[in-house]
Design goal:
The chain contains 10 helices and 15 strands. It has about 350 residues and is α/β, with parallel strands linked by helices.
Length: about 350
């Protein structure tokens, strides 16, 4: 295993950088922040100072031109993911792109092609996939712990107005509510639900039927629900909302039992331990648990191992493309009803 630190540049001074990804990079012995870029230089300088980064830039282009930056974390608004990921790859950087990878499957395909052409690593940042509980549940499923999986239900809800994490103090300014920047619940919480269903179903999505609703005065969808049919016979059901408290939950039903998990996507140390509730064929329940592990630090350490050591990426370009194509189908279904998931 290489001991050389991976030198990161961060595009965007988003809250997730300040609260989660940046501190994880600061803690990780395998990674360090070399530079931060924001359209607002004071924001870049403040974040660079907090992360012990020696350089702050007032443009993304200047960061991409920095020869000391090896990898880029793309944390700009969703609608800009494709543009700046492709630019970073063209500049010779490896890229960890915040979810969703892009706003369409077509854009994700262009990003994957750019990564292949540049011979650089590109990975979608779904941090939840790196918590040990995921592998434990997949192991239970593979061992027949609940029989044959028939249904995966994923919900993720969050009351944006009550959260108090909007920098401007007004929820109206939140990027998740701006259609020009790729806002809407599907790109945010809905992308987790689709990723969760796909991970635990073990098949490829074939058909989608979904519905959406916009809260009064909102220009984006704030609630989405629906069903996904997988090619292995598993049914997926999902619900996501930006105006309902609750967090993320996953339930997996099989012919020999079921598994339930709260805090299924984003976790906090104060919530530990993280239970895996399993119903047995006789109707009784058992509970196992996993301790807290920092998903963001595990994610960037994995990314460093992919770059430095040649480890296979947990989230492949094909995985990111399938998630994006399924999200495309979710959006199409609002006006077209029952739709197939495109393979093109």
């Amino acid at each position: 295993m290489s001991t050389e630190q991976l030198r990161w540049g961060i595009l965007g001074a988003a809250k997730i950088v300040e609260a989660e990804m940046g501190p994880a990079m600061l803690r990780s012995p395998r990674n360090r922040v070399q530079a931060v870029a924001s359209r607002r230089l004071p924001a870049a300088e403040k974040l660079a100072g907090a992360l012990d980064a020696p350089r702050a830039y007032d443009s993304y282009e200047r960061l991409l031109a920095d020869p000391d930056v090896e990898a880029v974390y793309v944390a700009v608004p969703n609608a800009l993911h494709a543009q700046w990921t492709i630019a970073a790859l063209a500049a010779g950087k490896h890229v960890l792109c915040e979810k969703p990878m892009a706003m369409s499957g077509a854009d994700v395909r262009r990003m994957n092609e750019a990564a292949a052409e540049a011979d650089r690593v590109l990975m979608e940042a779904f941090m939840w996939r790196f918590h040990p509980r995921v592998d434990r549940v997949l192991g239970l499923i593979a061992a027949g712990g609940i029989g044959e999986v028939r249904l995966v239900r994923a919900t993720y809800t969050f009351d944006l107005a009550a959260a108090g994490d909007v920098r401007s103090g007004s929820v109206d300014d939140d990027l998740r509510l701006d259609p020009r920047l790729g806002g809407g619940v599907v790109s945010d919480l809905g992308s987790y639900c689709v990723s969760g269903m796909r991970t635990y179903a073990g098949g490829r999505p074939e058909r989608v039927r979904s519905w959406c609703r916009s809260a009064p005065g909102r220009a984006v969808e704030t609630t989405v629900s629906g069903q996904v049919d997988f090619d292995n016979g598993v049914t997926g059901q999902f619900y996501a909302a930006l105006d309902v408290p609750g967090g993320g939950h996953v339930e997996i039903l099989g012919t020999g039992g079921r598994i339930r998990m709260a805090n299924a996507f984003r976790i906090r140390a104060a919530q530990a331990p993280f239970d895996i509730e399993r119903q047995l064929p006789d109707g009784s329940w058992t509970t196992g648990s996993t301790p807290f592990a920092d998903q963001y630090e595990l994610e960037i350490d994995h990314f460093a191992a992919v770059v430095r050591d040649g480890v296979a990426p947990r989230i492949t370009p094909a995985d990111a493309l399938e998630n994006a194509l399924t999200l495309d189908a979710v959006r199409r279904s609002w006006t077209q009803g029952d739709v197939e998931v495109s393979r093109r």
